[in-house]
Amino acid sequence: MIIILKPGATEEQIDSIKEEMTKKGLIVQEIQGETTRMLGLAGDTTSLLDEAVMRYEFVERVARVSERYKLASRRFHPKNTVIELPGGERIGGGGLSVIAGPCSVESEEQILSIAREVKLAGAGFLRGGAFKPRSSPYAFQGLGLDGLNLLKIAREKTGLPIVTEIMSQEHCDVFARDVDIIQIGARNMQNFPLLRDVGSLGRPVLLKRGPSCTIDEMLQAADYVLVGGKSQVILCERGIRTFETATRNTLDISAVPVLQKRSHLPVVVDPSHGTGHWNFVYPMALAAVAAGADGIMIEVHNNPEAALCDGQQSITPLLFNRLMQKLNNLHKIISEDRGE
Ligand code: PEP
Ligand code: MN
Known about the structure:
Blueprint: E1 2-5, H1 11-23, E2 27-32, E3 37-42, H2 50-54, E4 59-63, E5 83-84, E6 90-91, E7 97-101, H3 108-121, E8 125-127, H4 145-158, E9 162-165, H5 172-178, E10 181-184, H6 192-198, E11 205-208, H7 215-226, E12 233-237, H8 255-262, E13 267-269, H9 271-275, H10 278-290, E14 295-299, H11 317-338
Parallel strand pairs: 7-8, 7-14, 8-9, 9-10, 10-11, 11-12, 12-13, 13-14
Antiparallel strand pairs: 1-3, 1-4, 2-3, 5-6
Bound molecules: phosphoenolpyruvate and manganese (II) ion.
């Protein structure tokens, strides 16, 4: 529900209605429109009658939101969200954020070498899995907490903030302390208890789209994180399951403008998992930027043939460097076109 306030509504009046709605168990968020002030109410508003809200003389009108997601919705928050890390790095707000690194952290030498190379090429964030969600229990599962420590060393040496996946609620405290952007993997996009817990950690969350989840379900998952009130969300399109088998997943590029229309949250595209083949990563990364993505996430490995995970979809630092130049050129043109 959205409460549209009359122009003369005082702070005191607004505070009183906010307090009343919070007492009812609703989450109240202020929305500053072009000319009007509004309050967005998230939660179960079915028992709240429009008439009950209209009895406040400073309420202009009440509107019901038909979408199942609220906090992620652009209606609640017309302005684009920009994620800003303490070091000044940003995602959203017109720039192109590039997150690059190996699928998995394998050794200190490996992560340091890749971190240095992607930084040199212009990446702004280092990715690397320490806890890996593998389809087979016999496959490499990641180095766990040791992998996280190696990522911290790479951050210390390069200054790149780290993005890594959390798989279990038991690691919430460690991730809140050590990780700059907490990734929720595609397989956990609808792990609701995990989403709720991560939403209270106060770190930005990169939420990957579930392989068979709709845009609507993705935005509802974002609401699970946002309801915690402490964490911001970055949406990540990483391909969905379709009848097509020529690629690992079908990268839904149209998700970029659709998500940006429906939501204020920044949108990042992962063409590595989206295609599953290193030689398709380059064109699809460009396609993502052409579609207006706020960022991309790319798997880069210094020796893809020997990678312990996802070598077939990892590009070399050399190719990444070439891609970065093209991405930056294209991003410039796209930004001019959007008037940014
Ligand atoms: C990953 O980014 O390492 C990963 C496992 O991706 P996804 O969750 O999209 O499969
Ligand atoms: Mn991977």
